[in-house]
Amino acid sequence: GVEIAITISELLSLLEKYHLKPDKKLGQNFLIDENIVRKIINLAGIDQKEVLEIGSGPGTLTAFLSQKAKKVFAVEIDKKILNVLKEVCQNLSNVEIINEDFLELDVKKLTIDQKLCVVGNLPYYVTSQILFRLFEERDYIESFTIMVQKEVAQRLLAKPGSKDYGILTVAINFYCKIEDYFHVSKNVFYPRPEVDSTVLKASFKEDIPDIDERKFFRIVHACFSTRRKTILNSLSNSLEIEKAEVKNILNKACLQENLRAEDLDLEHFIKLYNELENRI
Ligand code: SAM
Question: Rounded to the nearest 10 degrees, how much is the dihedral formed by the CA atoms of 81, 113, 104, 174?
Answer without folding.
Answer: -110
